[in-house]
Specification:
The structure is a homodimer of 422-residue chains. Chain A has 422 residues and is α/β, with parallel strands linked by helices. Chain A has 3 domains: 121 residues, NAD(P)-binding Rossmann-like Domain (Rossmann fold); 161 residues, Dihydrodipicolinate Reductase, domain 2, CATH 3.30.360.10; 81 residues, Alpha-Beta Plaits (2-Layer Sandwich), CATH 3.30.70.260. The first copy, chain A, is built from 14 helices and 20 strands. In chain A, the strands form 4 sheets. In chain A, strands 7, 9, 10, 11, 12, 14, 16, 17, 18 and 20 form a 10-stranded mixed β-sheet that branches. In chain A, helix 2 links the parallel strand 2 and strand 3. Chains A and B meet through helix 1, helix 6, strand 12 and helix 12 of A and helix 1, helix 6, strand 12 and helix 12 of B.
Chain lengths: 422, 422
């Protein structure tokens, strides 16, 4: 008996899944498709990959409550009404495969419990990393280590924008290009302000660090304030700039941050270009492990969905170790990059150095390139490792200084320390 | 009831496993340890991680036939007698975890069938990639794609030697260094001549390409003939040199080769240094996915073993799609690097170009650096893509030319073609 699949959403990923499933040779078939405007969707070029006898419906109940559906695949996104649909499906004893990172990040713990209670699987390999098998790779392949940290480039839109800016493009132009190519939404806030990456980081934290953390408590910094000048200074510092999501076990919980960071050229993350995704896990015994590849797009994401369907078809339960609620702190001890745009006058360096000294932050280097107008003079200070929370206080004082033309930009500098394993 | 583990081998990996298990918090315990010279092994610093009531024995039957062992972990290596031991354990209904790449490469198909017949698991995550979860990552996370090719750096010893040579070290010296550090065996043939990588490639081919291929049919080229001059010419060509194992689906089976290859600086494999391992899978829908990290050493390998134990403890069966016996061909169509050491005289280029023309191989470039003695003059020809088998015929003719001081070196040049996904 083929596995009967009810598909919620026949958009980019859903239609690609239909093609991937048809090419797979797996003993599984799409029997139900839910979408708005079914008449239009049936004309989709990939609708030919859906069996002719499948039911197309605009009523979700026809799928999630159907007696003859074994697996519900949810590709609609968003917390509501998706959560209710999946609860209905799980309670009815159906396996669920979802690409919904928000739902898994915010409400995963309860949904996993519901799945376990009903003896079914809830798989979400497509929720992080698209086609890069970070979720199953960590769950099945690294469950034997004690993870200390998980870092990653998990938002393809930001990586496309920042790696294009590294090549000289302007933020506004490349955002438009990303929107035209379908990499970025009309309202790009979820991507560029870090909310998408934050949800994914919480999923990775649960899996790798066994920590349940609330996405709302993870500080997210926008990439919108990064400019061409920052790539020039970063280059001088042996770095580039990427949106990085990072969580690490600390004494009293987890430290976690998302935002643009200076990534040293010696880090594999510096080589992540375009819409690539990459995650680096750091374990006590196994050291650093890197997963990378195509993180976005219909077919790669559909591969992750199909792999989850394979796991269900083959009766392969995922290793799921218990996770525990933990406090999140955004207070990270790290070196930082401070970029100022000032109206030149005597005493600026003294004033900035004084503000840092007051908070006992040590300066590591001061960089100033020639050729900028005195009225908008950029210069950069890098710090020795310090508390991000204390540094923010110093930055708040500096922001008030009369020569500041725009608010100072403060970026964490990643440290590459692939420590020897124990 | 804790899972009861019988350990065959308390060497580098076995003793590290004892520590990793103790740190894991898993409901599993080592109850039996088999090794030669048990008295000495009990003094191993990591023997303290073995429970005091465990049985230490020099008779393997005490473990593989013990009624109260649930999982046998085999870390002895080699085809025989390991195969017989594992057959006994599987037939007795015990799960088996092994790091034995030769056994899984040569006799895996029969052993998997035996495990399935007895309703137990045979897991081998540590057999390829050490601590890098290539095996579970591909099995669970990429089962939804149609793989076209799998390439990798899967021998840490060769990668250590070649990445050190890239930094200027001499082959003989760095081999001695690797032997002193425990990265290379006293007889390094299995590593440097490619037999180790070949076995691992066959395991990856089974998993990713669903192709059962005989390791003996995969051509393996030694790295011993690579010299400092090749790194200099490779650099001029935008490449470095690494031992690469590559298998790809072809019309009538699989093409597969192992050996030193020119790796372009734009390939992630060019950034694999020291004993790192890396695998790149290329799928029809998901494109290229990269797994990399620490491929060797006790603790990383023990993480892979422990992750397999977790999977058994959590009742997580691995996705195992059917594989089929396939023909292997070493005939690869690719560009090649030919390096000659000649005693200079007029007409050499004409003679070599003539030999290539006779076999219809097109020259892409000719490189000759100054400052070498006329009696041992190195120079390099790169070809346009051609058949490796036809090129070998041309090289055999060139090898006979009277001005050749040593046999020509012929290295495949990898092409980076991360094609757009379908």
């Amino acid at each position: 008996m083929p596995l009967k699949i009810g598909l919620l959403g026949f958009g980019t990923v859903g239609s690609a899944f239909a093609e991937v499933l048809a090419a797979s040779g797996a003993d599984a078939a799409i029997t139900h498709v839910f979408n708005r405007n079914v008449a239009r969707k049936k004309d989709h070029p990939r609708a030919t990959f859906v069996p002719a006898n499948a039911l197309w419906t605009e009523r979700v109940e026809d799928v999630i409550s159907a007696a003859n559906v074994d697996v519900v695949i949810e590709l609609m996104g968003g917390l509501d009404p998706a959560e209710g649909w999946l609860r209905t499906a799980l309670a009815a004893g159906k396996h669920v495969v979802t690409a919904n990172k928000q739902l898994i990040a915010y409400r995963g713990a309860e949904l996993f419990a519901l799945a376990a209670k009903n003896g079914v699987q809830l798989l979400y390999g497509a929720a992080v990393g698209g086609g890069v098998p970070m979720i199953p790779g960590i769950a099945q392949g690294l469950s034997g280590d004690r993870m200390r940290r998980v870092s990653g480039i998990v938002n393809g839109t930001c990586n496309f924008i920042l790696s294009s800016m590294e090549g000289g493009a302007d933020y506004g132009e490349v955002l438009k290009e990303a929107q035209a190519a379908g990499y970025a939404e009309a309202d790009p806030s979820a991507d560029v302000d870090g909310f998408d990456a934050r949800a994914k980081l919480c999923i990775l934290s649960r899996l790798a660090l066994h920590a349940e953390i609330d996405p709302e408590n993870v500080p997210a910094q926008t990439i919108k304030t990064v400019s061409a000048i920052d790539f020039a200074y970063a280059k001088e510092l042996g770095c580039t700039v990427r949106q990085v999501a990072q969580a690490a076990l600390a004494e009293n919980g987890v430290t976690a941050r998302v935002g643009p960071m200076l990534v040293p050229r010696t880090s594999p993350m510096a080589f992540s270009h375009g819409t690539q995704n990459m995650v680096v896990t750091s374990g006590r015994f196994g050291g650093d492990v890197v997963f990378s590849g195509h993180g976005a797009g219909g077919p790669p994401t559909a591969v992750a969905v199909m792999s989850d369907v394979r796991a269900i078809a083959e009766n392969s339960a995922q290793v799921r170790l218990p996770s525990h609620p933990m406090q999140v702190s955004g207070d990270v001890t790290a070196p930082f990059y401070l970029r100022f745009i000032v109206a030149d006058e005597p005493g600026i360096v003294a004033a900035i150095a004084g503000a840092l000294a007051k908070f006992e932050v040590n300066i590591d280097s001061i960089l100033q390139h020639r050729g900028h107008p005195d009225a908008r003079l950029p210069f950069v200070v890098t710090t020795e490792p310090c508390s991000s929370v204390i540094l923010e206080k110093a930055v708040a004082e500096m922001a008030k200084m009369r020569f500041m033309v725009e608010p100072p930009l403060c970026l964490q500098i990643l440290v590459v320390d692939d420590k020897d394993t124990d």
